[in-house]
Please model this.
Amino acid sequence: MFVPGTADDLRARSAAPRHGSADPTRRTLLWVRPAVSGGIRAPSLPHERPVIADATMTALHAALTGLNQRAKVTADNIANIDTPGFLAGRVNFEDTLRSELANGQPATVGQSAVTQSADPTNTNGNNVNLDTETTMATETGLRYQLAINALDGKYSLLRSALRTS
Model:
């Protein structure tokens, strides 16, 4: 149990604010794809594009990458809800994706910007709000499912076109 005025309280107030996912020494490259059976790797670099792709499919893949990163940061926030001095992280990839698509650039979401939340902190220096994180996790899951359904529709069209030709 956290008690204000104790040594834990002093450490929490004097410690530098942190967020596990925003730690610049702990970078993960989200565009790297895992190896599949047979030792073949899916495209792992932004310039390695699949044979059959269009702007919609590329944008959907980029959105899925950003949503996946947001889900990881949200899970990290929830896991650290009682950690003194922990500041919630936020992922914003939509602005970057929107500007890339508006400028005609290929949609890529490598390492989206993970920022610390500016929400007010409680007595132990932590600003994670379970209601906010739960809502964000639910919204992220729904958006992810929507993007998956859209991508599935594109692949269904391709399968149908290949069967009829």
